[in-house]
Structure formats: C-alpha cells, structure tokens
Amino acid sequence: MSVKEYDIWYRHTKQALPTTALFNYEVKCSLQSKYEIKEELAGYEEAFITHMIFKGESPNFTKLAPYLRELCIRKVVLSKLTLNRLQKLKYLEKIDLEGNDLSAGLSPSVFKSCQQTLRHLNLSRCQLRELPESITGLEHLNCLYLDSNRLENALSDKMFWSMKDLKELKLQGCGLTKVPSGMCALYNLQLLDLRRNHFFNNLPDDMFYSMISLQKLYIGRCELTTLPTSLGFVSTLEKLVTSHNDFSSGLPDDIFQSLHSLRNLTLSKNNMSHLPSSIGRLESLEILYLSDNPLMQLAEETFYGLKSLVELHVGKCELSALPDSLKACKDTLSCLYIPRNGFHVELPRVVLQLTNLRKLVISKNVELKHLDPELMAIKTLTDLDCDGCTNLQHPPYEGVANLGCGQIRQFFRDQAVTGETSALITICTIAVVGRKMAGKTSLVQSLKSRMRILTNREEDAPFDETTRVFSSIEIELDGLPVQIFDFGGDDAYQTTYQLVLRSNSIPVVVVNLKHFEQLAAAFGDLVAAKELVINWFAHFYLVYPQLTSTILIITHQDAFSESNYTAYRERLLLACNQWKSKIFQSGNSRIEIKAFTNRHQPMFIEADIFEVGKHTSTTFNRIASRLLHKIQEKDCRTVIPFNWYKIIKFLQKERFDISSHLSLRDLNAKFKKDGITEAKIKNVLRYAHMAGYLLWFEDSEELSSYVFHNMDVIVELLEIVFNHDEEKKWSFREDNFQPYLSYNEPVVEKKDFKQWLIFFNKTSLLLDHLFKYLVRTESKLAFSHAVKILQHFNLLYEHEDGRTDLKLYLIPSFARRKIDISFLRGSTLILCTSFAFKGLKLPHHAYHQMSILLLNLHQPRAFNISLYSNGLAAQNSLTKFLLQYETEESEMQFKVSACANTIHSSWEILVDSILTIMRYLHQSWRALQYLCEYLCPHCLLQGFPDPGRLEKSGFLVEVEELLESGESSGVTWINEAVDERKCLNITNPDLIPASFIHPCKELSEAEKEVFQNSIFEIESAKISDYQRKQNAISAMFDWLIQHEHENEMKMDLVNLNMRRQPLTGVLKYPMSSPRGRALIISNSSNRVGSEVDFRNVKDMLSKLDFVVVGEHKDYTAEEMKEAIIQETRLQDHESYKMFFLVLMSHGRKDKIGGCDGPDDEVSMDDLLNLISPKNFPAMTGKPKVVIIQSCSGVNKDSLVDLPDDHDEFEESSEGSVDEDPSFSEEQWISFSNTMNTWDNESIMLSSEASNTEPVKSNRNEILAGDDLLMIKASQPGYVAFRDKKVGSWLIRASVVAFYQYAHQLDLHTLFKMIQQVVARYSANYNYEKKKVEGGYGQIPEIRCRLTHMRKVFLVPEEAVL
Questions:
Q1: Vertex 341 angle, CA 339 and 344, to 5°
Q2: Which candidate, 761, 769, 757, places its Cα nearest to that of 806?
Q3: Average pLDDT of the residues in 713-737
Q4: What is the DSSP letter of 541?
Q5: Which of 23-37, 193-207, 289-303, 353-367 has the lowest mean pLDDT?
Q6: What is the 3-state secondary structure (H, E, C) of 649-681?
Q7: How much of the chain exceeds pLDDT 70, in percent?
Q8: What is the rounded distance in angstroms from the CA atom of residue 30 to the CA atom of residue 32?
Q9: Which long-range CB contacts under 8 A does 373-382 form with residues at least 24 apart?
Q10: How many Cα atoms within 13 Å fall on the side-chain side of residue 1286?
Q11: Which residues contact 564 (CB under 8 A, 6 or more apart)?
Q12: Least confident of 343-347, 512-516, 1252-1256
C-alpha cells in the first residue's frame, strides 16, 4: 500500500522564524508524507509545527500541528471537512486562503475557536458570496483581506462594529454599492482599499471623521463624482489614490486643506478640468499624479506651497504651458512627466529652471520643434525621454532626440562649433507615389532639370529602369540638396516603402487624369479617387501622423480638352473631399492626423495642386518652390559641424562605388586622424539615414556594424522578392539560367534549379539553396546581410524543418494558397479575437508583417507552419492556431484551439499574440483606428451567428493598459475555472466556466472535469444550422398567424448593432453606410391593401439604413420605366454599395402591368435590363436586390372563389412562358435542404478561391444579369395573393424576416426562408378555408445571379470605406 504524500512546507519551533510572508515559501513546498514529518519532529525534543503551507490536498493538520500559528493553503477546492478542522486550532494568528474555491460557503463557526488569537485573515479571490457569522467576533483582527469576492449583499452594517483593532481592510472588486456604517467607526484603521466598486451615490459625507489613524486610502474606479467632506480632516493620511472616477463637476476647493501628512496623491483619469485650490497647500506632498485629465491650464498658484514635491505627473492634460510657480519646487523636484500635451515649438521656460531635475519625460509632444541648449545645462539630468516627438528639428528626432539624453548632449556640444566650420544641410526626403504609368519618373526627372522630360515608357515593359522597386535622385532646392524617392506604383512594391519613408518626408501623389476618367466610368468617382489618391495616404499618415499635407500632381493634362480637363479635375477633388469627410465620420484616430485636423478645409488646398501637360513650362519651378516652402515650414534645415559634413560628402561619393556596403570599423579608421570619434560618426550616420542618403540599421544587433550607402544594391535585393509580374520573372530566370559556383559549395545546375522551382510552386516555400542562388546571382549583397535586412522589416521568416533538416524561407508575398477553413474543425473549444480596422485602409503588407511577427513569437513552441496569402496556420502536438485576414474588408481574426489539458497554454498563446499584434500596430501604424474584440467561445461552440463580444473590459483592458504603460506583463491570470460567469452574449443567461472568457492558469483535475462537463452540456444542447433556420421559419410563421389581422407591422430591428461573427469563410459584398438607395414603385390602381404594403416596406428599409424614395400612386408602365431610369442616372449611387428595388403592381407571366389597362404593360426583362451594368454603371459589381409583388399568371385551384383581390389583369394571347409546377411545403423543405447542402459546399470551395481580394472572372465582360438577387411573389404562371386589410403575403413575410434576421443571415438565405414561410402560410390558409372554398397556395420564385459565390449581408460586420 503506497503512502500518501502532500505538497507541503512547514516550520517548527527548533527552526528560525520565516523572514517574509508565509505565501512566499510556496516555492519550497515538496512532497512529504505524514510519517516523514512526524519522524523529523521526533528528532527534536519538544518540537512542534508553528507555520505551514500546502498546495492541493491537505493532511489532517489539526493532529499534525495542534499549536499552528500561521496557515497558508493554495490551489484547493476546500471541502467543509477541511474547513471544519480550523475550528480545532486555538492558537492561529494568521490564516491565508487566497485564491481557493470556497464557493460552497464557510461554516458559521469556522473562526470561533481562534477569535482571541487571530490577527490576520486573507480570504481574497475565494468566490465567496457571504461571510460566516464568526467573522464578526474577531475582535483582535488587525488585517482583513476580502478582495475579489461577490459580497455586494454580504456586508451588514454591524459587521465591523467589534473590529476595533483592525488596521488593514481590503475590499477591492467586491461589487459593493454602499459602505457598511460600521466601517466608519474603525478608528485604528491605517489602510483601506475600496477600489473597483460601484458607489453610484458616492461615499457617506461623514465617513472619515472617526478614522483618525488612516494613512493609506484607495478609492479608484469607484464611479465617484465627488469626495466626502470628512476626508479633508484626516490629518494622518499619507497616500490617497482616487483615479478613474468622474470629477468633471469639480471637487470642493478646501478638500485637501487639513491633509498635512499627505505624501502621495493620485488624481489621474478623473475627467477634471480644474484642481481645487487647497492642493497648493500640501506642504508634505512628494508625489503628485494628475495625468489624463482635460486640465488645459494650471492655476498660477498651484505649486507655490509644494515645497517637498519630488515627482510630478501631468501627462495627457492638454497643457500648452506650465505655471511659473513650478520653480518653487526647483530644489526638490527630480522627476517631471509631461508627455502628450500641447507644448508648441518649445518647452515652457520654467522647465529650464528646475536645477535638480534628474528625469524628464516629454514623449509624444508632437508640436515640439526645438529643445533649448540650456536644458542640457541641468547637470543632474540623466534621463530625457523624447519618444514620439517626431517634429523635433533641433536636435533632430531621428538619430538624436529619440536616443535620449546622451545623444542630445553630444549634439549640442558639437553644435557649439560655429562660423566657417559649420554647414547647412536638409534633413528631409521627398516621397513620390502614384499608380504605374502615372508619370512619376517623368516628374522626378523634370524637377531635376526644371524642364519637361518624358520617359516614354510602354505599359507592358516589365524590366526597364522605371519599374524598379524605388529609385532615388538628388535635386537642389535653392541650393539645398534633397533626396527624392520615386516609388514603383504597382501593389507588389508597396511593402518596400517602409525602408525609406521617414518621419520628415514630404508626400507627393501623382495622378494620371486618364486613369481617373477610366476608373470613374467603370466604378464611380469615389472608387477612382480611393484607388488613385486615398489609399496612398495610409503609407504616410498612419505611420507618421504629423507629416505635412500632401502635394497633388495631376498629369496628362494635354490628353483632354480644356473643358473636359476642368470637369474631371473638379470631380477628382470633390471625391477626395468626400473621402476626407468619410475618414472623419469613421471616428477619431488614436493619434490625430495633422493633415486632416481642419475638417472644413478641402483635402488639397490650391497651393498644393499642380497640373502637368504640354503647356506647363513654369510648373516645375512652381513645384520646386512649393517643396522648398514645406521644407522651411517643417524647419528641416539644420546646421552641423563641418567635420560631420565631411563624412556626409564622403558617403555621397562612395555611394557610386560598386561595393554593397561600408563597415563602421572602416569609417572609424578613416576619420580617426581628424579627431572624429565613433560617437560622432554615428550621429552623422543618423543624419544621413534621415536625409535618405543611405540605410543604417542602428537598432539591429546584426546589421548595425554596416552602412548600406549604395541604394541600388538594396533595390536589387528587393526586386528578388517583389515584382509586379512574378510569373514572367520566374520564367525569365528559368530561361536565362546560368550555372553558379560558390566557394565551398557544389555547382548549381539547371536540373537543381528546376527541382527547387517545382517545390516552390507547390508550397510557396523557398529552399535555402534556391534563395542563396537568387541572392548571389541577382544582388551584390552577401547572403547573410540579405536575410537580415528582410528579417529586420518582417518580410521573411527563417524556418528549420525538423522532419527533413531543411532550412526554408517563408515570404508572405510569395504565398498563393488560401487558408482551408476546416483547419480548426474538431477542436474542443476555440479562443478567438477579432480586429476590425477603420478609417484609412491598412496596407496589405501590414498583415504579412503580423504573420511574420507571430511566427517569430511562437518559434520556441515548435509549431508546424503553413503560410497563406491571407494568413497562417500552425499546429503542434497540443495546440493549433490560425491567423486569418480579409484585407478588402479590413478585418482579421486570431484563433487558438483549446481543451481542458491545454486551456492555460492556449490562453498564453492568445494573450501573447494579441500583445504582439497591438504593440506592432501602436508602433508601426500609430494613427490606425481599430477595434479589438474577444468572441465568446461558448457562443462559437453553440454555433450562434452573433457571438457575445468582450471589447472594453476584462483582460483586453489590461492588455491596452500594458501597451500604454510600456510594461511587458501584467495581465491577471485566474487560477481556478470552477467559478462560473455569464456568457458574453447579453441575450443569453447561460453560466460557463470562467476559463472560457479569462486567461487562466493550469487546471486541476477537478477543474478539468468541470470544464469537460460544460463542453459536453453545450455540445448536447447544440442544434444544427438547418434546425436553427427551421426554428426561425416557424417563429416567423407564428408571428404572421398571431398578427394576421394587423395591418401595421409594429416591429423593431433585432440586434441591429450586434455584428455577426466575421471571417466565416465566405465571400461578401462590401457595404456602405447608408447601405444605398431604395426605390419603391407601388401601383395603387385597383389594388386594395397595397398602401399597407407600401408603408410597411418603406419603414423597414429606412430602419435598415437605406435612403428610401418612391411613391404609392397610379403608375403607367412607361412611368415605372422612367422612374427607374431617372434613379439610375443619379451620381449618389457611386458612393453606395447596394441598390434595392421594390416593385408592386399587377402582372402576368413575364409582364408587369400599369394603371391603363391590359395593354399598358412592360416586360420583366426590359425592367431588369434598366438596372444592368450597361444602363446602371454606378452599380457595376455591386448587388442589386429586387422584390416584386405581382402575379405571374392566372393559374389557381378552379374550385376556389377568391375572397380577396389578387394581383392580376386580363391575360393577353401574346406569347407564353414555360411554367414551373408549384411546390408543396414538403417538396420545398426537401428542396431547401438540398440548397443548404449546396451552400455549405460553396463555402468549402470558396476557401480555395480568393476570399479577401476581388475575384477575377475568367470571362471577358460583365453579363447583364450579374450581381442580381430577386424574389417574385409567385412561380411563373401562378397568381400572387394580397389581403385587402393587411397586404400581400410576400411583403409581410419579407418584413418579418428582415426585421428579425437581417442582422444574422445573408439575403439569399433570407429569401429562401421567406419562400418557405409563404408556402407554409398559404398551406395553413388552405387548411382553414378548404371546408368551404377548397384550397390554393403560393410559392415565391427566386433568381440569384450574385457573382463569385459572394453573399449580401444587410448588416455587415463593419461598413467598409
């Protein structure tokens, strides 16, 4: 029989006392049996245990240690038996049960035996809902910790009356809404923590009068609007933390008047616009936090009385100045934090007078341009943080100010050299972007020569010099040399912009007006402006939001007549202005984009717009003058010591040398004789890097020793990876293959090359041998340098294949396959986080970089990796994770599989990945707007189309706070999963394990069982997608039956604001807001009840965010046609993504009738032709949805005398239509099942097609019926029914379906459900009426011509700009 062992540590009387709190000895716990413990005690005379800590199952400690004074228990679901043992311990002084599961409750008398001895009790995070009666009898208790329990109703007013000795009381996060009156009488209390409670009515005004010993008070995140008057009289108070409340109405001026002992005061994030005057009388105050309040200015007298102030935090307070009274603190103040304020040009002069300053944080003051040299005269200053002050020019931000105090001091020392020994240089570059064939290269050459030069490039010339990744050339502006970069216009090259774009670049966008004409004709002005202008802004302003406004160059002026040119120019500028409005409407950026701050100003001011054509001889001089003006405006010119300038001139000369790089060691050796130190050379390299002369990767350990002065060599490397015609490039390589012999390596033969190429084509993975061959034959760079440069910009991932020992290179731009959405199928649980990007569109390469970052992050976990063009998938023996993005819809998801054994590991992967992605977005795309949400795993497991979402609470808030603070860790990890929490879906009350929605540690065996049982229960209750739809159909049918006598359909849209689960693996049409225009043509002639249909459908479409137009009146056939024609001619459609047509009239077969009798008719085909791409170009490629309520014939049961009108008119003898038989309800359900199967198959097939980029059709033109979705009231040849009082069956069913399910389902699915509802309703009507009149039915007809397997959602996840 095995002896039971326990994970335990103890101390007995013959050993030294513990030197720290008992829980710190948890790491010393080891497995021991009771016999081993007794044997050790027996070795000492009269030894007994006084301190004990154990993890997991416990021994009978009452017998083992009857004289126990301190007990600590961890990681246990405590039973009543274990807890009852506490009643036998009479000498306990400290009990620490933090983090255990006490949800079963405590015995009322559990602490009764130790009431006279117990001094310290810790019950934090124990899932308690009530406290035992015996706790009120702990008269001698000094410390009581009850944090993070659910005690909102557990604290009675009498609870603390007897605890007169209590010194520390912690009630953080207990859900309290009021303070027990007994707490106010704790006159010995020294520490009180009430953070994260909900005191909506504030704290009692007399609460602190009796707390005459209180030293520390924490009341942050308590939803307070003021502070109680009594707080101002607690003269013993040393620390007060009251942040994250709402003091927008102000605090009493005298609130701090008597707090003479206060040393630490935190008032951050309280929405305060002014400070109480008594704050200036806190003579003992040493640390003051005021950050994140809209103070705007501080009163002049604020700091006069703060003679002891050591540390001051006033970041993000919208300050433009600091009061002169701050100099009263000059002898004591050593740390000043003033980030994210509005200091213009220079820091307030009072900062220069703080002679004892040791640390100064001025980060993200984006308006700062100069630092005064006097600042460096403060000898004690050793830490100066200028991070994010990107507009600093003196000293320059890049390469000097961003590197801290030492580099800034060095700059000012060298700057002291004046007169003939200094030189003026420009620290600025000009970035020219635009689509290919826009005229960028011609512009750059013309600016250099100041006369028009045409490069005459043919569009199909793939390899000439003007199509390279980018080219750089030096031009002179008023004698100042400036580097200008001409970037390749194809999408393939946009990844490379980040290599040479700088925080001081001047953006120039070149637009070929012929391109605008062509795109506008095909897709509308807004789409054309977006493609030609707006999309380029992301590369500039999301990365560097403080960049100057963009210069717009419009080329090919001579290709138009003067009037046409003016018209297209104005249309382009108008569309750009509309985009600017859209960007503002999409919400504010995390960081304001300077160029867009004035929303009333057009996107481009006239001074920034230039036209280029035959008769523009002076244009290039004017462009040069404007560029010079912007350089002067940005203050990008600076004076440097002449010996620095010598190095720059040397680098410029060496730039044309054939070598690929220079070493830092060689530069040191060359200029050492001139007395130039390595530190000065590095400063010069920073300037030259910022000026665009070279690339120096100072922050790369592997590359910082090399200077890449020859830009052409870098371009050669990038051309290997990025090319606008990849297939031609690979064919060219194969056709022109040359054997290659490398030192110490075998000769590369053509057969080797072909084998590697076959592998690459199958997998998109570059074998090490192939990549080496490409670099060595197409670039002058050393292979190791090439790899490091690409890795530095997250363009390449190096992977060791453990199965084959092959070294592989993954380059996202080479990936061709799409993600298989079945990758995570079979997983027990999915942890899923979604990102939705708003405003300016995040470029494609940003998603690629996030893939590489995650691969690097998880490399130690030994995942098998598959890289795709729209994400990555990885798995090891325990876990799978998936990153998937849809760039066109600007959304991304990260998913991790989880089960009971791996849930803790899955949470680690998820949290680490979110942190990595967010940190990348914050650092690399600083002005990007995004929404990060955690999707409820419980909802996903049940298959809910609307999973609950966690956005601004829980662990995501902690992640955001980590990013703000710059910390690397700090997310709370719960250590139990037995605690149940509500599902994140607000409409679903189900309770689920806490580990579903919050990061958790490894589960115990008992917790794993709870986890598994929860999964089993969810799986058992889950219904199929088909059954869910059938339930919805039944619900709609029931509603129609219950309200069949009500003509007004009084309903609200269900869950309109709840986004669907994105990235479902299907293609979707993008949506806009408003969705589009909806035209209703409702013929009133002889159609009693049709006015009800008109009102109901108009109200419904308005609530669905359509601009609804149309009338209910008498229409002739010609008037119906004219109404549609006039609608299709409106320019408004160019800005919308959808068109809705509702047509309600008489009809027969393939005709729609007007109000002038049987001959007044128009064919269905003619009407639909009016909204074809040819006649409605603004809606080309966009969905056009049509609902038609009319008869399609006169066929009906001959025995039925119809009680109500039906939409028909007398049949003509002209022509005939093939008639489909109507379906019975059972036939339709069978048919619907088949259609559902087809839908699922379509989803699977689309995963291998493009589900992110626009799909390229194999056919040469768009067909007339493309992107059309129509439902007609009846099958060909059959009547459609309309009730005189409540309207037609089709319209009523449609209104119910749209109101209830438009937020979940696509329109085609909705139409099929409507079809079933009408069929079922008519079958019911048939049954009710057949006793007297016989029976009849109605089956609507659906036509679907939606292209490329895309679906239409009326309520998309996010409207796409």
A1: 115
A2: 769
A3: 83
A4: I
A5: 23-37
A6: HHHHHHCCCCCCCEEHHHHHHHHHHHCCCHHHH
A7: 86
A8: 6
A9: 373/412, 373/415, 375/347, 375/351, 376/408, 376/409, 376/412, 377/352, 378/352, 378/354, 380/334, 380/355, 380/356, 381/357, 381/405, 382/358
A10: 15
A11: none
A12: 1252-1256
Phi, then psi, of 884 in degrees rounded to 5: -135, 135
Residue with tokens 């310290």: 120
- The closest of 382, 604, 610, 446 to 513, measured between CA atoms, is 610
The 3-class secondary structure across 310-354, one letter per residue, is: CEEECCCCCCCCCCHHHHHHCCCCCEEECCCCCCCECCCHHHHHC
The whole-chain average pLDDT of the chain stands at: 82
- Is the pLDDT at 1333 greater than 70? The verdict is no
Phi-psi category of residue 59: left, alpha or beta, with phi > 0 → left and psi -120 to 50 → alpha: beta
pTM recorded for the entire structure: 0.66
Cross-strand bridge partners of residue 641: 422
Q: Could you give the CA distance from residue 686 to residue 704 in angstroms, rounded to a whole number?
A: 12
Q: Which residues contact 629 (CB under 8 A, 6 or more apart)?
A: none
Q: How far is CA 145 from the centre of its chain?
A: 37
d(CA 97, CA 120): 11
3 state DSSP class of 553: strand
What whole-number distance in Å separates Cα of residue 421 and Cα of residue 370?
A: 22
Structure tokens that stand for 1149 in this block: 């077969």
Q: Which amino acid is present at 1237?
A: T
Q: Distance between CA atoms of 623 and 628, rounded to whole angstroms? A: 9
**Banded pLDDT at 16 (limits 50, 70, 90):** confident
Please, are residues 977 and 1010 in contact by the beta-carbon 8 Å criterion?
A: yes
Query: From CA 349, how far away is CA 363, in angstroms rounded?
Result: 17
Taking Cα atoms as reference points, which of 1033, 1011, 897, 998 lies closest to residue 1313? 1033
Structure-token pair, residue 1121: 């046609």
Q: Poorest-confidence range of 50-59, 64-73, 907-916?
A: 50-59
- The first and second tokens of residue 148, run together, are 């993070």
DSSP string, 1235-1285: HHHHHHHHHHHHTTS-SSSPPPPSSSS--TTTTEEEEESS-TTB--BEETT
> In this model, does residue 1143 exceed pLDDT 90?
yes
Instruction: Quote the tokens at residue 410.
Output: 């060095």
Nearest to residue 544, comparing CAs of 585, 506, 511, 503? Answer: 503
CB 380 within 8 A of CB 334: yes
How far is C-alpha 590 from the chain's CA centre? 11
What's the number of CA atoms in the CB half-sphere (13 Å) around residue 102?
Answer: 29
Strand, coil or helix: what is 240?
strand
Does residue 53 carry a pLDDT above 60? yes
Give the Cα separation of 523 and 270 in Å (integer). Answer: 49
Distance in angstroms (rounded) separating the CA atoms of residues 1175 and 1161: 21
Q: Report pLDDT for 1326.
A: 56
CB neighbourhood size of 226 (10 A): 16
| Short-list 142, 288, 156, CA closest to 213 | 142
Task: Write the pLDDT tens digit of every residue in 198-231.
Answer: 897 789 999 999 999 999 999 999 999 999 999 9
Residue 1036, both tokens: 């709609």
Phi-psi region of 871 (alpha: psi -120 to 50; beta: other; left: phi over 0): left
Peptide bond into 602 cis (omega under 30): no
CB atoms within 10 A of CB 653: 10
End-to-end CA distance of the chain, in Å? 72
* Distant-in-sequence, close-in-space partners of 301: CB < 8 Å, separation ≥ 6: 277, 280, 323, 325
Mean pLDDT for 152-160 is 85
